[in-house]
Structures are given as structure tokens and as C-alpha cells.
Design goal:
127 residues; three-stranded mixed beta sheet; 11% strand
Length: 127
Amino acid sequence: MRFGSPPSLDDLIELAEAALAAIPAALREPVRGAAIVVEDAADDDTLLEIGLDSPWELTGLYRGTPLPAKSVLETPMMPDTIVLYREAILLEWIETGEDLFRLVRNVLIHEIGHHFGFSDADITRLE
């Protein structure tokens, strides 16, 4: 996908959907009930909650209960959600020159890792 102007929220949603479809079914199926959304940037409350100062530092976020912590006896209060932050992703894309689809896929897979209950350190080791 080539862009003549900065990719929009819709463009990133399209890339995220294509990235999700391209990952192995073993990773994709357990995420089927999670919402995947794209926002421009993390808000101040989110940054405060996770201890970051700048929205440019956060390309994605998993919100929900990781699979190992889920119980069939509990009703979830909110659906699991994977949020991709457009502006931080685009900044990394510009700074690294990495293919945008690959970058979106990497962020998505990283957040899916959190859905499986992996920590950032676990995900880094797996990468």
C-alpha cells in the first residue's frame, strides 16, 4: 500500500485487519472476540496509568484480562481491546523506514502477546 499523504485511521485499520488475517490461526483464533481499534494517540489518562510521559512512546496497548487469568465463572466487564496508536506508529515508520504493514503487524502481534499473558520481557525474548 503506497501513501501520497499520511495514512489515516481508516488506512491503519485496513492494515491491521490485513495483518490479523495474515498471522497464523493459532494466534488469530484466541483473539477473535477482542476489539481491534486505531486511535490517533494515547490520552493523558492512559499515559499516566502506564507511566509514560509522551504519547510518541506508545504504539499499541492491550486492555483486558489475559487468557491465563480468565475464568469461566466471571463475566467480563468490558471486551478485550487491542488499541493501535496511529501517530506513534507513523513516527516510528518515518524514523525507521520500516515497511508500514510490517510495523503494524509487529505492534499487533506484540499486543496479542499480552492477550496471551506474556510480559514485555517475554515478548522481547520471543522476538
